[in-house]
Write a structure and sequence with these properties.
heterodimer; A: mainly alpha; Fumarate Reductase Cytochrome B subunit; 73% helix; B: 439 residues; alpha/beta; Fumarate Reductase Iron-sulfur Protein, Chain B, domain 2; Rossmann fold; four-stranded parallel beta sheet; 7 strands; 51% helix
Chain lengths: 220, 439
């Protein structure tokens, strides 16, 4: 079995199961926990609407808050956007999705998708540097923070190496492709255990904050 | 500065003595640690779990905190202040606890001791960080849990421990108890202001606060004047004072007692004085504590006055010319309570030229001394740093006068102004309304 066959076969299958089971386990563990029921008279009604509004509006903080976090704020959204563009709309990825899901979708020109990936990679490297050097970030960072960012960087980096035919250690193209898929497997395996879970938890967290603040009569 | 700080000095002079009230603990370190852990585990629920699981460690909350902004010290990052709580969650009840236990160390009493200045001296639970977090994480309620856990481990700062002990054993706060309230009421009566005390029934029940009794008697006088003008059937409670909220069970005990009192009086409204710290507890948390919605409304006096003005029931004259004013939103009734519109309606009715600070309403900066911080002597330098931010924002408005609706904020402003030789007048919205009642 070649590295590519291993990566696409048992490694990917195992990663997928760990990802799916781990995500469900963690979500169930959080959401099935006892939840305090707020019986106070709300200042504003339409609590659910307040929660939904917060899911959107948390991305747009008021100026007096925003002005101190411009780089973090913009870079955060920018890398997510460009990462997903390169993941979902880069032509070589679509056959994989088609094989896995049974359907595909239109792609973007390779240059655009690659440029998106390059932006994502650059921002992630800058954020990693920032985390390692800024006192506040160093103070609050754990292994999870560094590992998660490295595990997102690796598929991007190996993807670029592959596209540019940068084959280290005399590696064959197929082997590098296998390594690329293995980095994705590593990302999927780590996903349920670390902070990457915010993909599933960010909107529930924003929603519950929105409901709470709506009850108090405060814009979330 | 218009107001004398002599009464404030008298209040602050009582604080060092408080620290000497509480004797050495009779519990072992293990018992104290387990009491803290029990509080954390008892209070953590699915909402906190969602927040703790979602945190990205982005550090943006630091840029909302006046203590971090004022000092640039990383340890004052708000989410860092709940680190022991996060550890307990991750090791004991989080869904990945079996894995986390391998990499997350357990909490220790020494660690909780280390966190004491972070959650008491360097946090006023103002909630500004709650607005900044891109995930919507509400950090300040979790700092509240940390504080109650530390209180359970007998790790309250000395001044707060003394105050809690006084409240528990004597029923008074900072030397203000039933006798002092009755004495103040008698003084006001002698001065021609009717203050009905402890009537059997009333439509409106009024609480007063230690800060009012000891430093701002004019606030109670103004409230009485307004309630009398509205011809309401009201009464001041002499044996319940606005709670201090320190101690793990003290807050709940006081809330329960106050709720029972108001129900016994068959009152429709509980009015809280110009002091915000009890507002979130009585307005929002009390229903959970007693297990059912409250059968009466809870309003802060500034909120009540603003509503009466907006409804046209309370007439106000334009205040004598006093130049532009700005309004400081007290965190507890503003960001934690949603009272923004009513005090501003009162200011408008007074015909004043309101110049808003850059950070106003929900993003207002705390005065720096809320949440009991003003009582902690060793936290003075942090209070000062936080107040410098406040001074800059006020100065930028060009206003000569700061109006507010919380006498704890007023106390901090006046102390901060005295320390910095800052020439601004700090006044109460309610007192200004009472001084300018129309026909």
């Amino acid at each position: 079995m070649t590295i590519l066959e291993f990566a696409r076969g048992p490694a990917f299958q195992a990663a997928l199961w760990i990802f799916a089971f781990g995500v469900c386990w963690r979500l169930a563990g959080v959401f099935l926990m006892y939840r305090r029921f707020d019986r106070s008279q709300p200042r504003r009604h339409h609590l659910v609407a307040g929660g939904v509004r917060a899911m959107v509006m948390r991305s747009l903080p008021p100026h007096e808050l925003e002005k101190r976090i411009v780089f973090q704020h913009v870079s955060g959204y920018a890398w997510h956007l460009t990462f997903f563009i390169s993941l979902l709309f880069f032509a070589p990825h679509i056959p994989f999705f088609k094989q896995f899901l049974g359907f595909g979708w239109p792609t973007l020109p390779n240059t655009f998708a690659l440029l998106s990936g390059a932006v994502a990679l650059s921002i992630l490297l800058a954020l990693l540097w920032r985390r390692a050097t800024r006192p506040v970030l160093r103070k609050i960072s754990s292994l999870d923070d560094y590992l998660s960012i490295v595990l997102v960087i690796l598929p991007l980096a190996t993807g670029f190496m592959q596209y540019a035919r940068l084959l280290p250690f005399g590696m064959r193209y197929e082997t590098l492709l296998g390594v690329h898929v293995l980095t994705i497997c590593a990302l999927m395996i780590w996903f349920p255990f670390g902070k990457l879970m915010h993909l599933f938890l960010a909107f529930p967290a924003r929603f519950q904050a929105g409901v709470l603040l709506q009850r108090k009569g405060v814009e979330a | 500065m218009s107001a004398t700080i002599a009464p404030l000095d008298a209040l602050r002079a009582a604080l060092p003595a408080l620290g000497k009230r509480v004797g050495r603990s009779t519990r072992t370190d293990d018992e104290r640690l387990e009491r803290a852990r029990a509080v954390m585990l008892g209070e953590l629920d699915a909402s906190h779990a969602t927040y703790l699981e979602t945190c990205l460690h982005c550090g943006m909350c630091a840029d909302a905190c006046h203590f971090y902004i004022g000092t640039n010290e990383a340890k004052y990052t708000p989410i860092y202040k709940v680190e022991p709580l996060k550890k307990v969650y991750q090791r004991e009840i989080g869904p990945m606890r079996w894995l986390r236990r391998l990499v997350v160390s357990d909490i220790s009493l020494a660690e909780l001791e280390e966190w004491q200045p972070l959650v008491y001296d360097a946090c006023t639970e103002c909630g500004r960080c709650d607005l900044m977090c891109p995930m919507g994480i509400q950090i300040s309620p979790m700092i509240g849990i940390m504080r109650r856990a530390l209180a359970a481990a007998e790790l309250l700062p000395a001044e707060l421990a003394g105050a809690a002990d006084e409240q528990k054993t004597q029923g008074s706060v900072l030397g203000a108890g039933r006798n002092e309230i009755l004495s103040l009421a008698r003084e006001l009566e002698a001065g021609g202001i009717h203050v009905p005390v402890d009537l059997a029934t009333a439509d409106v029940v009024l609480l007063t606060s230690a800060v009012d009794v000891k430093a701002y008697a004019g606030s109670l006088k103004a409230t009485a004047k307004i309630l009398n003008r509205l011809k309401l059937k009201w009464t001041l409670l002499s044996h319940s004072i606005e709670l201090l909220g320190t101690g793990e069970s003290l807050k709940e005990l006081h809330v329960r007692r106050i709720v029972e009192e108001v129900v016994k009086h068959e009152a429709k409204t509980l009015l809280l004085p110009e002091c915000g710290h009890a507002y979130p507890a009585l307005r929002f948390d009390s229903a959970h504590m007693i297990g059912e919605p409250l059968p009466f409304a809870v309003l802060s006096i500034a909120e009540f006055v603003g509503r009466e003005i907006m409804a046209g029931r309370l007439k106000v004259k334009h205040a004598p010319t006093m130049g532009p004013v700005t309004y400081h939103d007290p965190c507890k009734i503003g960001r934690h309570g949603g009272v923004f519109e009513e005090p501003r309606a009162a200011i408008k009715a007074l015909g004043l030229d309101l110049k808003e600070m850059e950070s106003h309403g929900r993003t207002n900066y705390c005065c720096g001394g809320g949440g009991g911080q003003f009582m902690i002597a060793r936290g003075a330098h942090l209070r000062h740093r936080a107040f410098e931010i406040k001074m800059r924002e006020v100065d930028d408005t060009g206003a000569d006068t700061v109006l507010t609706a919380c006498n704890s904020c007023r106390l901090n402003y006046q102390n901060g102004a005295a320390e910095s030789n800052w020439q601004k007048s700090v006044q109460s919205v309610v007192e200004l309304v009472a001084a300018n009642l129309g026909d």
